[in-house]
Hints:
Layout: E1 2-6, E2 17-23, E3 31-35, E4 41-43, H1 45-54, E5 57-61, E6 67-69, E7 80-84, H2 93-104, E8 109-112, H3 130-136, E9 140-141, H4 144-152, E10 156-159, H5 163-167, H6 186-191, E11 195-202, H7 204-207, E12 208-212, H8 214-217, H9 221-232, E13 254-257, E14 264-267, E15 271-272, H10 283-307, H11 316-325
Parallel strand pairs: 5-14, 7-10, 7-11, 8-9, 8-10
Antiparallel strand pairs: 1-2, 2-3, 3-4, 5-6, 11-14, 11-15, 12-13
Family: Belongs to the diacylglycerol acyltransferase family.
Keywords: Acyltransferase, Endoplasmic reticulum, Transferase
Enzyme class: transferase
Amino acid sequence: MLLKLKCSSFRVARITWFLVEMKLNDSRNCYRTVQFVTSRIVVIPFYCLLRFASGSIMFSTLEDGKIVKGLAGVPSDGPVLLVGYHMLMGLELSPLVERFLIEKNIMVRGLAHPNLFARKFESSSPEFSFNDWIKVFGGLPVTASNLFKLLSTKSHVLLYPGGAREALHYKGEEYKLFWPNQPEFVRMAARFGATIVPFGVVGEDDIAELVLDYNDLIKIPVVKDFIRDANSNMIRVRDETSGEVGSQELFIPGLLPKIPGRFYYLFGKPIETKGRNEILKDKKVANQLYLQIKSEVERNMAFLIKKREEDPYRSVVDRTLYKAIYATSNEIPAFEP
């Protein structure tokens, strides 16, 4: 699959147009490359490892409420706003972006924390920095103006209301939403008649155990100083008036790897806002829709947590054996929704 994208700010030479080539073979040959017009190929081993370990499976909901395997329930025509839960360290991102590229030929545009675009996140790679990778795969800083631009161009936009607070949650907080008190995105979506698709994703607890969270790390003197120094100049997306989500100290959690389970995604029934712009200007009505979306995300996660117990291929061991026996199969089965 070849996509033509625009990117800037390369560290060595400015290459404005390049090709992104997705090499999507089985787990033994999996790799993703960015092929420059100069034929330079960069391989990302971590992505291959995550793809193999997570064995991601996706479900979506049709207009009649039927849950089906794949993304048939997600509208192909934009603007579409995908709103969901942000797993630990954002591990769900790359499988999601990949699946939309494969199945629907759509580049999902994610709105990310502005600090991910800061210079301190640039790598020592002479060709590509971490910032560039975010841009290649559709990422933009989360601002109202960027959301406005993306919706106005009928894009498929990925939004996490819980932001860094969810992605860097503490022990015992997995699958808990930390959304702002105010419906920040509802009226913007209605202005452009965007379709909102709430989604849930589970599986972080099957990949790793969170052993050191912010409260643990801040007790270690050297680490404490490092975290406070790193956060002193951090861009704040929200303040304390936004609720718990306003508490968004950035840190790197301590994780203990597990024998991998599986990532499960469920995209809920699309919610139309077209023709509802005027009525959603009412704060009470907008808040009701906001709470409906939030509840749908929670229901989707509860559904997946329950149904994954029925998946005979939840473990990476079982999936590997399946691939060894059925080598020609492109997708490993899961539970029946």
